[in-house]
Fold:
Amino acid sequence: MQRLPQPDAGITPEPIRPGIDVQINGEAFRHTGDPQMPLLWYLRDVLRLTGCKYACDRGECGACSVLLDGTLARACTLPMQELQGRSITTVEGLAQADGTLHPLQQAWIDEDAILCGYCQPGMLIAAADLLARKSDPSDDDIDGMKNLCRCGSHPRVRAAIRRAAAGMKGARK
Ligand code: FES
Ligand code: FES
Structure:
């Protein structure tokens, strides 16, 4: 009988590492890498979901915004080890499966809110969080989103959120 090659003495097989199971945009994933990897890196470098942007890397600018179990969060400050069993929505998950845009995405187009675009995925996620909490937000509510934009898109973003809110209200009647 042929014998299988034996491993070199001194080599210890790596134990099976437990994974971190997360749902991202409705799909199940298991992360088996560094548990301290920030979610932002996992999204961009592992899953290639590049809508979530790398900017300040300290939870201040909002470019990396995601919804964590439906609530606004900053992916740059979230280590994977805190995400077992959690559900994440990125800007790629806002549209419906058939490609129908979220009302906010359509309003962004209608109001021409995108300038250079870098901050806009985070703006859209923050706006989705806002409309989930307040269906008819005031200007103060919108300005309270605290997402930075170097291009000065805030007036257009405000108009887009108002347009989307009005459309969603009409759809509920
Ligand atoms: S990159 Fe995460 S908040 Fe700025
Ligand atoms: S659109 Fe350029 S940073 Fe906001």
User: Anything to note?
Assistant: Residues 54-57, 59-64, 74, 76 surround FE2/S2 (inorganic) cluster (ligand 1) (CB under 6 Å). The chain has two domains: 20-92, 103-172. Residues 103 and 168 are 7 Å apart (CA to CA). The chain has a mean pLDDT of 93.
